[in-house]
Request: fold
Amino acid sequence: MNIVNFVMKKRFCLVVLVLVSVSWTAYSQSFDEKVQEYISHPKGKYCIKDVTIIDGTGGPVKSNQTVLIENDKIVRVGSDFVIPEDYQILNGKGKTLIPGLVMLHEHMFYTRPQFEGWFDVAQMSFTFPRLYLAGGVTTLRTGGSVQPQADLNIKRWIDEGRMTGPKMDVTSPHIDREGLSIASLGVVKNSKQVGEMVNYWADKGVTSFKVYNMITREDLKVCVREAHNRGFKVTGHLCSLTYREASDLGIDNLEHGFMASSDFAKNKMTDQCDPFAARTGLLEEDLKGSTINALIDRLIENGTAVTTTPNVFEPYTGREVVPGGGFIALTPDYQQAVQERYDKRVNKDSASTALFQKNLQWLKRFYDKGGFLVAGTDPTGAGRTVAGYANQRTVEILVEEGFPLEDAIKICTLNGAKFLERDGEVGTVEEGKIADLVLIDGNLTDDVHLIRKMEFVFKDGVGFDSQKMFESVKGKVGLY
Reply:
């Protein structure tokens, strides 16, 4: 063999070895060590045997079911087949299996304790993604970003296996006019800037847009036009615009149930926000009033989705300081601030309790009449809403306020997947779907509060230890 052939052969062998090494590394090292620490069941062949299934379709609960998972897919669901010998068996006796939650008003930020009366929020780039996954959320859409580039990085790092967290759809920064004194929010000065903002952040990678309290009708027209031209959706937390106006202008989604609606305000001025008049109007509207019934019908006619976020409005009526049990996740300083705020208000505001329940009754009427209802948590407000814990609490609240368990699960799973146009992949426990599943230690049909006893959260067929993830960030929310 001459020297040229020898060198060429050595180079060829080296290239092959490098390619094999790179390929093997990419396959075998799909998760960083800090993520692997929370994986109890790597991707493979699993059988969850004799489990109770609430499948996310709204259909009846099924007992004594067996689910086969192969890699990232659900390959069989039923009770009348032989389990293949090469499947690892997980005992589902006395347990419940639901789809991974798909929640549509989540944030990577959390309320700061107020300083001299100022309200602001702090980015929780590391604790919140892990808490969402721990709480059963396998897919989420943020409901507005204060650090959108951070949120886009978080999404990428999770996808790359470098962080623990759900699959994410990142929403734009809040699109708003001057009026709110929140340091982390920017403002636009005219409708032209709205269009520029939509296209700038669409180019950066966000996949939905959020309009906020002080926008004008022209702002919304531009936002809807530009977002829809890019194939993206628009949601809104409104005040200056009524729900009817926004729905007629083509907004895809309205946030916070009916709690942010100014449709009931007396002498409502065009493009103007009066939050006190809006709240008074909500309180004064009869439970079966003509305005709410007409609004419900209009939203359904226009196909406008509504997101319920009951955690952030849960009243101070002797309930948990942080509903869902999330108080233990906060740093001592944050615990003190939240506790002091709670103690000052507990059992002193009957109007909030009445409005909380009225809103949920209106939402049930909207849902029962065929309205498209989805769910989220919104970890802001008074600091009583913490990622993960709040997602579990959302299901509890819906059931407590009259939604059948099967429908509560559907609202928090399949409906969210439909809104994101991913229902062909996730949102239900069905053959052929991606194995995004939550295994709960207990029968939810006996007690919905057992949802807090999640054991494993399967995302893309990989089983994460829920309680271990919760434990790892106790006392850290507020710092990271």
Summary: The CA atoms of residues 10 and 62 lie 61 Å apart. DSSP finds 15 helices and 20 strands in the chain. The longest strand covers residues 45-53.
